[in-house]
Structures are given as C-alpha cells and as structure tokens.
Amino acid sequence: MTGRSRLLIPAVLLVPLPSCSGWQSALNAQGAPGQRLEELIFWIVAICAAVWLTVMAVLARALWRQHETREREVSLDARRERRMMVAVVAGIGATVVIITGFTAASFLTTRSLAVASPADLAIKVRGKMWWWDVEYVASASQPFLKTANELHIPVGKNVRVELQGDDVIHSFWVPSLAGKVDLIPGRTNVLTLRAERSGLYRGQCAEFCGMQHAHMAFLVVADEDGDFQHWSRSQADDASATSADHLIERGREVFLSKQCAACHAVRGTSAKGTTGPDLTHVGSRRYIAAGLLPTTLGSLAAWIADPQTLKPGNNMPMVPLAPDELRAVAAYMSNLK
Questions:
Q1: Mean pLDDT of all residues in the chain?
Q2: What residue ranges do the domains of the chain occupy?
Q3: What is the pLDDT of residues 151-170, one digit of tens each?
Q4: Do the domains at 20-61+80-233 and 246-335 have one common CATH topology?
Q5: In this structure, which of 6, 206, 333, 334 has its CB flanked by the most CB atoms within 10 Å?
Q6: In which band, very low, low, confident or very high, does the pLDDT at 22 lie, cut at 50, 70 and 90?
C-alpha cells in the first residue's frame, strides 16, 4: 500500500463526520432531553455493534473449520450437541434480554421528554400547512405573545411546548434539543425543550404532511435570560402606529386596504386575520415562509409578489400589486420589528 493510499482511507472514513454536528444534529445535543436521546443512541449502536462483531467472529470460525480435513466419518457427538444447544439457548436468551432492554430504555427516555412542570415557560405550537403558529402562554412573569416559525427560549430553563395539529399530522423535531413528537388534530401532546447554551437550533417537520413538507422548518433561538426578557417585552408591543418614512407609511396603507389584512394580523392596526401568520414583528424574524428565505427586503418583495412560485401549494394567494405598491408593502413588512 502506497503512502497516498494510506492517507486516502482515513480521509474517506472521515467524510460522514461533518453531518454529526451543526445546528440540526441529534449527535450534537445541547440540552438535557437531547443529551438523553444521544446517550440512548450511543448505547444502542454500541450494543448492536458488539452483537454484530460476535456473530461475525462465530461465522468466521465456522467457515474456517470447514477447511479442516476429516479423516473419519462424521459421528454424533453428544457432548458437542449439548454445547450447541446451550449456545442456541444462550443466543435466544441474550436476544430477548437485549430487545427488552432496548424497549424499556426507549420508553423511559421518551417519557422523560415531557418533564416540564406547570411553573415553567409554556408555549403552544400549532402545525399548519406549511408553517408553525406559536403562542407564549401568559403568566406572572411572561406576557402573552404570538409569533410564527421562530421560538425564543431562555438558556438553562425547561420550556413546556404544547403541540397541536390543525389540519394533518405534523411532527415537531429539534434534533439538537429534543426528540420528535407528533402534532395530531384533536389532541395535545407535550414536549420539553431545554438549551444549555445560547445559539440557533434548526427544527423541521419530521412527518410527511403534503407538498411543502420539506419547506416546513422553524428556528429555536436560545437566549441568555436578559436577552430573552428584552425580546419578550419587545414582542409584546404593538406595531408602531405611524412612520416618518413615506414609503413605509404607504406600505401600511396598501397592506390594510388589500386582502392581506383579511388573512394576517398586525397588532395595533385593523388587520385581525388568523388564516396566516401573525406579522406584527415579522421584520425581526430571521426567516420567512417557514425557513424558506432569509428576511431581507428582496426576499419579502419576492414572496409577496408570487408566493406560489416560491412555495407551490401554500395557502397564500397572489395579490395583484403595482410595482410601487409592492416596494411599499415590502418596506413596511421589513420595518415591523
């Protein structure tokens, strides 16, 4: 083997490793629920690897013995038969024990994903086609908030997420923080999120739910407590009533006079729609259209102009707008922070 070949083999083996980290990886857990799942994955893989190596070793020994010459006729060996019977029974017993252990460990780990107490921060998430409606339940320390496709949570605290499906079955999954939990129409399921360090964690619908299932992502932003409180207070405010910028004010007028206001809500205005996402602070979100596009002026304009080309089959119709109206509405949306 040449020196180049010796270097090539480790390089090929390392190719899959980048997928084991990042902002959407179950093997890069950053919270207690995710860490429990990561440990479960590790032990299952380790035990299965040990079983596979044992089976391969026994198979190799059996194949090797086939090459041995036999100088006498095969005869029944009672002691050998007993050893084989013991080996078979031991194998069956080990299989039962391992599968039972996997089942119990999986049950206990899954059960631990809903350990948040009623005193923790509570968030209601509804899966829609194809976006996420998010409500922060009001409490003594938390104002009522309504947003979409982006959750902010405080670092080091359990967050109770109540999951509901409005149309079809979806599945809420933030690989770095917790496991998958389905959103089933007519039923509320509960999941605990906990981040041990600040950062961005990408989530995804993990249950095929229709044409745009692949474009139904969301973002979990883990903030230090002070940053979370600041974000929470700003999100509780209504949208600013007026703007000194003529283009933004024109966009506000166009938005309220068109069909937009019938489907979307902007607190502090006459727009009270509930069909689409709440847009009160849409300009402060990192992405629009459930993770499809970054929130920039150009992306907002492109989405408003023709949402069906960017995300075919979604429930937002194309609203005819003149070029100057489109620029104004996009500027208004971008200003809602």
A1: 86
A2: 20-61+80-233, 246-335
A3: 999 998 889 999 999 889 99
A4: yes
A5: 333
A6: low
CATH architecture of 246-335: Sandwich (2.60)
- As a whole number of angstroms, the distance between CA 133 and CA 164 comes to 10
Is beta strand 217-223 parallel, antiparallel or unpaired with respect to 150-154? parallel
Report yes or no: 289 and 303 within 8 Å, Cβ to Cβ. Answer: yes
Residue 243 makes CB contacts below 8 A (sequence gap 6+) with 249, 252, 335
Rounded to an integer, what distance in angstroms lies between the CA atom of residue 162 and that of residue 120? 12
| Domain 20-61+80-233 indexed as CATH 2.60.40.2550 | no
